[in-house]
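Researcher: Re-running this chain for the archive, since the previous output was lost when a drive failed. Same request as before.
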Amino acid sequence: MIARPQSDEAVDAEPRAGTVADSIEHWIKAQAYGLGFDLAGITALGPAATAPRFDDWLSRGHAGEMVYLERGAEKRRDSRRPVPGARSAVVVALDYGGREPSGPVARYARGDDYHDVMDARLRALHRRVNERVGRSVPGKPYVDTGPLLERDLARRAGLGWFGKNTMVINPRLGSFFFLGALLLDLDLVTDAPFEAERCGTCTRCLDACPTQALVEPGVLDARRCISYLSIELRGEIPVGLRSSVGGLLYGCDICQDVCPYNRKFASELSEPAFAPRPALADKDARTLARELLSMSQAEFSVAFKGSPMKRAKRRGLARNAAVALGNVGTEGDVPALASALSHDEPLARAHAAWALGRVGSAAAADALRVRLRDEPDDAVLSELRAALSALEG
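Model: Regenerated structure tokens:
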């Protein structure tokens, strides 16, 4: 891995013949930095060193409903399999602004979809490689969408080590960055892997996780993780975990916020594509939750077009909004929750009922009783009765 140049001029300049900088590896990494990436390294493709740990993680059920991880497990065990003939990977990282204030939406999801942003740049890098070598080099970019263990490639390419919170941590950037890889049918000189593990005796991430999702250093039980619960989980959030979600509406940064490397080295937001979009900017959890609960499908489609938040879908965000109001809401939020009892999605109605039982008031109880008479869904009925019981008991 090489350090990012201080200016684009340094990137675009052709290296002098006969110098180390004249190598194609140096040139490729320089082009990656010129395209805006914050880290770049090269590694050879082959069996993934972390494959046994990945298999164990799957066997313990830690993936929850993310069944696609098991479907692609065979390819993930060997990074040569996704792109037949590929021999090397250019692994990159793009910072998304760890100095931004914390809020109800994780920092990575406030702007444009990072998959699109990084994919476009990796494709541009691929075109430049083709021009450099004078032919079309078989290859493919990956940004968290294919059967690759990206963290394994990143460590092997020298970008950082695996933190106890499972994130790749770079000693001069922290962990608030996306990973991507360009797989190429080229034999490239590799960078030295990052062998050191620099977390030491620190356990701040494990101690801070509100749902205790980090079951041991470096092992995440996704079924307890707020990011999983608010994004990947399609059904009801388990009752026993709802109160621990707090006012978080999409994703969670807590295990990164407390990391000493982020506290010291996290960067200001410099990529305009990741700046908060109008639907999210400067809104606290209660305000945003009320807006999400009342959004129509058409409004949702406009507000979150090109956003990573569309992954949770409108029903998932409405569910999350109800839970957040159940945790941080006040009697002033009862009208919004009462209105959500008529939401077209049963998932939203069920969690709104739970939230009303948590906020508590005569108006909340009245709203629950009225809905109880007309609710057709059994799961929602169960939540309505439980909420009323909590208020009347």
